[in-house]
Amino acid sequence: MTIELENRIEQLEMKLAFQDDNIETLNNEIFEQQRRLQILTEQVAYLVTKLKESEPDNDGVEEVDMRPPHY
Q: Among 3, 22, 67, 70, which residue's Cβ finds the most Cβ atoms within 10 Å?
């Protein structure tokens, strides 16, 4: 093989190694973001459940402000 061909092959191998590293890095980042998104989704669902549990069950009727007579 000629030196020029060997250099081109070496450059291609370096580019391939660089791209493989970038793909692995991006894959890890996406995995981590999906994990965080899952945690946040679970936390929001929990908070929605807690909020619904804490709401008064008055079937849409607003409560009247009942102050004691001495006010």
A: 22
Per-residue H/E/C for the chain: CCHHHHHHHHHHHHHHHHHHHHHHHHHHHHHHHHHHHHHHHHHHHHHHHHHHHHCCCCCCCCCCCCCCCCC
Tokens of 69: 């007579």
Query: What's the Cα-to-Cα distance from 17 to each of 13, 25, 29, 64, rounded to whole Å?
Result: 6, 12, 18, 71
Is the pTM value of this prediction over 0.85? no
Query: Which pLDDT does position 66 carry in this prediction?
Result: 73
